[in-house]
Amino acid sequence: MSNKILFQGQDDWGPLLVIEEDGIRKLSFGPGDEQSRQNSQSPTMPEHEYIQAMLLSLLFIEPKRALVLGLGGGCLVNALHHSVAGINITAVELRSTVIDLALRFFRLPHGKKITLVNDDANHYLTQPNKKVDLLYADIYQATGVDETQLSDAFLQACCAQLKQQGYLILNCWHEHSESQLFAHNLRRHFCHLYGCHVSSGNWIVFASNQTQALELAHLKSQALHLKKSKNIDLTRFLSQFKKIY
């Protein structure tokens, strides 16, 4: 087993480390932390299970525009760019060095349909932006999820960024599924709420104000189509995908 340090540094928010181990590149923000993980043999398919589960959103809607809050190594951006032809993606990242590392070490795609913004997500959400079909919130520090991501003000701001048929996708922890305050905040701003627990300890929330609820039975055929067309297999997550609250 080979372990090679590709980058080691520090910025205003803490340490940054990129290592490669047997073809797997990892981005870390601290000891024991793993923000991003990419296989050099299949860079467009996310290694982390929670990001794969977040891609369930592609079964609900044919997105033309997506917003990603929290870039990391750009694995989610890479997967979206690969999976949806012509999609416009804006990724907002607080730490400029993280953007540089994603471009340098994690094969982050670039082009006129991908916009990288160095900004605080909360500030970005207050700006006049084009509304999106999918909004992914994956704002984590070395110690875990940024609690702002669970707040009423954040959820309200995200809701305002979505098209009528759009979806907010939140990367949370299992423990957040038991929070009555978080449930209350979600219900205040969204009519339809779904959740998916994954074995990594993450809990992915999908929130929408679509005019109709999802037909869960229809999702399997959509997942099989995505597997056949893009070689992305999401079928195993469907047994854990449920309506919540």
Structure description:
This protein is α/β, with parallel strands linked by helices. It has a single domain (44-243), classed as Rossmann fold (3-Layer(aba) Sandwich). 26% of the residues lie in helices and 33% in strands. The chain is built from seven helices and 14 strands. It has helices spanning 49-54, 75-83, 96-105, 121-124, 152-161, 180-189, 216-230; strands spanning 3-11, 14-21, 24-28, 36-39, 65-69, 88-93, 114-118, 132-137, 140-141, 144-145, 162-173, 192-197, 202-208, 241-243. Strands 7-6-5-8-11-13-12-14 form an eight-stranded mixed beta sheet. It has a four-stranded antiparallel beta sheet with strand order 1-2-3-4, with helices on one face. Helix 2 (75-83) links the parallel strand 5 (65-69) and strand 6. Helix 5 (152-161) packs parallel to helix 6. The chain is globular. The model has no long low-confidence stretch (mean pLDDT 94).
Total domains, how many?
1
Structural class assignment: alpha/beta
Distance between the termini: 46 Å
Unreliable runs: none
What share of the residues does DSSP label as strand, in percent? 25-35%
The total of helices stands at 7
CATH H-level superfamily = Vaccinia Virus protein VP39
Helix content: 25-40%
CATH fold group: Rossmann fold
* Spatial strand arrangement across the major sheet: 7-6-5-8-11-13-12-14
The description of the largest β-sheet is: 8 strands, mixed
Level-2 CATH architecture: 3-Layer(aba) Sandwich
Structure summary, number of beta strands: 14
Globular, elongated, flat, extended or rod-shaped: what is the shape? globular
CATH class: Alpha Beta
Order of helices and strands: EEEEHEHEHEHEEEHEHEEHE
* Oligomerization: single chain
